[in-house]
Design a protein that fits this description.
This protein has 149 residues and is α+β, with helices and mostly antiparallel strands. It contains two helices and ten strands; from the N terminus they run H-E-E-H-E-E-E-E-E-E-E-E. Strands 2, 3, 4, 5, 6 and 7 form a six-stranded antiparallel sheet that branches. The chain is globular and about 40 Å long. The termini are far apart.
Length: 149
C-alpha cells in the first residue's frame, strides 16, 4: 500500500505541472494511460508473459500503460507496466517503433512515473521525461532514441 501511495503522489505531482522547460519544446507528447488492467498477455506483444508474471508478483496485478503517436517514420509506442518501479515511483518503460511489415524495434527504455508523460523530440532523436531522484527531487530525464542492442 505504501508503494502505491508513493506512486500515486508522484504521478499526481508530476501531472499537476512539476515539469521543466524541456516539456515546452516542440515534439510529440506521449501521455501514458492505463490500457490493459490485470493483463494476462500484452496485446502489443512488447511485455512477455514472464514480465507480466513479475508485475503480478510485485504489485498484485499486471497493468499496462500505453501511449501512441503516428509519425512519417512509423508509429511510436510508449509502454509501461506497474511491475518494475523503484521506491521513488520511477518505473521502467519502453519506447518502441512500429512499422507495417517490420519487426518492432525497442528504441529507448526510460525511467518515468507510472502513467507519466514523455516527449519525443520533433527530430525523433531524444525522449524527455520528468523524474524523481533518489533524494526526492524532480529532474528532467533525457534519453537518446535509437535501436537498443
Amino acid at each position: 500500500m505504501k508503494q502505491t501511495s508513493v506512486l500515486l503522489a508522484v504521478t499526481l505531482a508530476l501531472n499537476a505541472g512539476i515539469f521543466h522547460g524541456a516539456f515546452a519544446q516542440d515534439g510529440y507528447k506521449l501521455p501514458l494511460k492505463l490500457t490493459t488492467k490485470d493483463a494476462a498477455q500484452d496485446p502489443d506483444g512488447v511485455w512477455t508473459d514472464s514480465d507480466l508474471a513479475d508485475a503480478r508478483q510485485m504489485a498484485g496485478t499486471a497493468n499496462i500503460y500505453t501511449a501512441r503517436v503516428a509519425t512519417p517514420s512509423g508509429t511510436w509506442l510508449l509502454t509501461q507496466t506497474n511491475g518494475d518501479c523503484n521506491l521513488q515511483g520511477m518505473c521502467t518503460a519502453l519506447l518502441v517503433l512500429l512499422k507495417p511489415g517490420a519487426t518492432p524495434v525497442n528504441m529507448a527504455n526510460p525511467q518515468m512515473p507510472l502513467g507519466g508523460t514523455a516527449i519525443l523530440s520533433a527530430d525523433l532523436k531524444n525522449l524527455t521525461t520528468s523524474e524523481i531522484s533518489e533524494n526526492g527531487k524532480a529532474f528532467t530525464g533525457s534519453y537518446d532514441v535509437g535501436p537498443i542492442k
